[in-house]
Design a protein that fits this description.
Layout: E1 2-8, E2 12-30, E3 36-37, E4 47-48, E5 51-54, E6 60-68, E7 75-84, E8 89-91, E9 95-98
Antiparallel strand pairs: 1-2, 2-5, 2-6, 2-7, 3-4, 7-8, 7-9
Length: about 100
């Protein structure tokens, strides 16, 4: 999985990413650094703090997730998580972006 681009505006962001196989995607974000925890049981997904936005479309290779209602000129921390049809989970390292003024 690779993040293709982030497009910020004053009150939102669109995260575009690509996967090498069909998967469903999510983006997690918060104004505080995200906290992560490993999955401890079979078929459990890793814990990620913050607000999660899921792509409700069917599994695919190209993903575009839009988050709205953000505060202008604010640092947000984010990561993306994808789950393929077999239940395999892949996450990007946490990163950050700043909304426009």
């Amino acid at each position: 999985m690779s993040v293709v681009s982030l497009q910020t505006n004053r009150t939102g962001v669109t995260v575009n990413l690509a996967t090498d196989e069909f998967a469903q995607s999510q983006v997690f974000y918060d104004t505080q650094p995200l906290r992560l925890a490993e999955a401890t049981r079979h078929a459990e997904q890793p814990y990620v703090s913050g607000v999660g936005v899921a792509d409700n479309a069917s599994a695919r290779n190209a993903h575009s997730l839009t988050v709205s209602g953000l505060q202008p000129n604010t640092i947000y921390y984010y990561l993306t998580r994808v789950v393929d049809r077999s239940g395999n989970v892949s996450m990007t390292m946490p990163s950050s972006f700043i909304t426009n003024q």
